[in-house]
Every structure is written in structure tokens, then in C-alpha cells.
């Protein structure tokens, strides 16, 4: 995937956020974690017993660098979406629906600050967790 679109379903007041090179909002890395849903129970005088449980929610992490004033504006847009407290719909550049996700954390680190307070480099990370109540 080289482009992701994040939108708030049923909310026409919030524009979709596109992670992509053309928009100046590309991401460097994406990692998705899907755990197996197993629990180990310790027993006396033996190895732990594995017990199947429900599947935990998947997590998705994006990170990268954005540049100039556009980077700072992009972080603000992500915070605005997070502050809606609504699940977001993710789709890739092929139109594949990745499902609904909750924004758990938006992190930024500004560097190379110029005299007007603009960060020339903004490192960002975004932590998402699967939304399973739909």
C-alpha cells in the first residue's frame, strides 16, 4: 500500500485525510499486528496449558516525516479527526476497504524550527485499533 484514505463515515463536515505522496502526507512505514487469541495457563508440575480465547483487536501503526508548514497542518487535521471520537474508515489506493478503526494516539515531534515557529520537519506516528462494534 502506498496510499491510504481515512474518512469519518456519515460525517460530511470532515474531509477525508489522504496519506499519499501527491498530498505531501506520505508515510514511511506501516505495521499491522493481529494476535492469535491464545492464553497460557500455568499449571502445577507441568508446562502451561494453551487455551483459545476470543481474537484480540488488530492494531495498525503508521509513521513518517512531513515537511514545512504543510506537515504541521496535516498533524492538526489528524487531531481534528481524532477529536470527533468516531471510528474512521480506511481504504487503500485500490479502493480496498480495510474496515473501521479507532484513533488511539497521534504523536508528533517537531524539529528544525525556524524563526516564525514553523517546524521544517515533523515526525509523526499514528496508532489505530480495530473497531469491532459495527
Overview of this protein structure:
This protein has 134 residues and is mainly β. It has one domain (4-130): Elongation Factor Tu (Ef-tu), domain 3, CATH 2.40.30. 11% of the residues lie in helices and 47% in strands. The radius of gyration is 19 Å and the shape is elongated.
Outline:
With 134 residues, this protein is mainly β. 11% of the residues lie in helices and 47% in strands.
Provide the β-strand percentage band.
over 45%
Task: Using the CA coordinates, give the radius of gyration.
Answer: 19 Å
CATH topology type: Elongation Factor Tu (Ef-tu), domain 3
Counting DSSP E segments of at least 2 residues, the number of strands comes to 9
Structural class: mainly beta
Q: How many domain modules?
A: 1
Overall pLDDT level: 88
Per DSSP, the total helix count is 1
Distance linking N and C termini: 25 Å
Helix content: 10-25%
